[in-house]
Amino acid sequence: MRKRVKSMLITALAVTLLAGCGSNEGSNSESEGTSGGEAKSVKLKLFIAQPRLKEHYDKFINDFVAKQKADKNIEVSVQLEMPTADNAAQILKTRLASNDAPDIFALHAINEIPTYYKAGYLEDLTDQPFVGKLLDSVKPAVTTTDGKVVAVPLETLSWGYLYNKKIFGDLGLTPPATLTEMKAVVEKLKDNKITPFELAYKEAWVPQLILPLAAGAMINTENPDFIERMNKDEGSFSEIKSAMFDVFDLINSNGTERATEVGADDGAAAFAAGKAAMWLQGPWYAETILKSNPDIEFGVAPLPINDNEKATMINLSASTSLAVSKTSKNKEVALDFINYVLDDQASNDFFQALKFNPIATVHTYDSYPWVNDATDYVKEGKSYQDPAIPQAVKDEVGKGLQSYYAGQISQDDVITALDKAWKSFNKVNK
């Protein structure tokens, strides 16, 4: 385990990137006061696990650096660390536990804020200017149970799976409402020599997407107290086994080849090129897909997990959010950056470039077509809030489903591992 953590830390250092201007290699993590009219020097450490969006973050950071110099005469150098999603959670936990916290770090609003807040890692941001700009529908996702706002959200999500609208339109297909209808769609695609699903499982977080979709659908139809009972060690994933594996098996048996050799970025490029008609993925990959093929028309639809139409719903979630470390020695500048994320002028272009949904009153751009697709389902009452599944469990299911796809373990092996992971989480977080 120690070797694994050490390897992860080395990987993190290897991907550490410097962004911004006026970088001072000799500056430490604290603000350096200066005399007279000289600029104060600050080195700000950011940790955001979205390397595919690096160029947009670089530009935004450079603009922030210039604003700090112009407005406050502070020379800011920014160390931007962008590990992959598979490694980020473990790296961050190690950094926080070893008192080497980044000044600002990304975390999942639903899955991670409760745990990180309880551990005392998150600065209280309740009184910061950005809070008043958040939409009423978004603010609860970054608010603790005792009413503290502890992060600025970046991504709000309405998702299920992605589908190629041209392929569907050419064949007269519409998104299916049941698993039986999905099987018919699959057969129609195969009859027309089109691969139904893009598979890209090299990174474990991708196959784990089936878990919140299956759990969310079941919790909102047949098993409403599933999360509550799992938190009390009274439930089991065996209760939603068929919801997970019936559709997952259908996807895997009708998808592209060598899934465990294909990363999500390559999957996005393949989907953009029309290599498959559907992809178990969320609209957070819109920017990458459109970069590969600006002309593609894709939609978002809810994934059927059984033949109950009421269970076919859109997952609503707030995911990537930025928090300030409680122990940051550069809190003034860190708070300035957090507020700059929702700056009245800069935020609109930044969120548009990332292809993120509007989340604040300062966002005036139109919603994207795929957002409107999902919103139509939401308006019909066909949606649920992303279930609060511990991140440790999601990490476990990702690895388990990679092994399951490769034929190395059984469905029951996956279920046993998930139950064990949740019980371990409960022990630590009582």
Automatic annotation (TrEMBL):
It holds the Pfam family SBP_bac_1. The lineage of its organism: Bacteria, Bacillati, Bacillota, Bacilli, Bacillales. This is Raffinose/stachyose/melibiose transport system substrate-binding protein. Residues 1-19 form the signal peptide. Gene3D superfamilies: Periplasmic binding protein-like II. Keywords: Signal.
